[in-house]
Specification:
Distance between the termini: 46 Å
Helix content: over 70%
């Protein structure tokens, strides 16, 4: 049974590692999209400052509208990433809880085996002592 528990612990640790890697990937993607959104917002501000009262201002409105659509799309992507991260973290908590159950079961099993060995050793030593006592008589 000990070997089975160790195998289950190892499998659960592998699942935890996979979930952690998935969370890390999603966080990185979220940061990438957020940085892209911030870059676009900064570019829009610069373009507004540069062309707002010039002969090119008629094109500026279309540029702003297009940029707002892109920003809206990026916000949706960020929100989706946040939802995925939330689900992964929930899964991580569940998997960690499962891992702890197996680790506790293994600890109990090992402590019971150790206690059993101590009792057996005590019994052997008692028998040895009794035999020596009887042999002296």
């Amino acid at each position: 049974m000990t070997k089975a528990l160790k195998t289950l612990i190892k499998l659960n640790k592998n699942k935890l590692d996979k979930i952690l890697k998935d969370i890390e990937f999603q966080e990185a993607e979220k940061n990438r999209v957020t940085n892209k959104k911030l870059t676009i917002e900064n570019e829009v501000r610069l373009e507004i400052d540069k062309y707002s009262n010039t002969e090119y201002s008629f094109m500026l409105q279309k540029y702003i509208e297009h940029s707002e659509k892109i920003i809206k799309s990026l916000n949706a992507q960020i929100e989706r990433r946040n939802e995925i991260i939330h689900k992964l973290r929930s899964s991580l908590r569940d998997q960690y809880s499962e891992l702890k159950k197996f680790e506790i079961a293994l600890e109990k099993k090992l402590s019971l085996e150790l206690e059993k060995e101590k009792r057996l050793e005590t019994k052997k030593l008692d028998e040895f002592g009794i035999n020596q006592y009887l042999n002296k008589k």
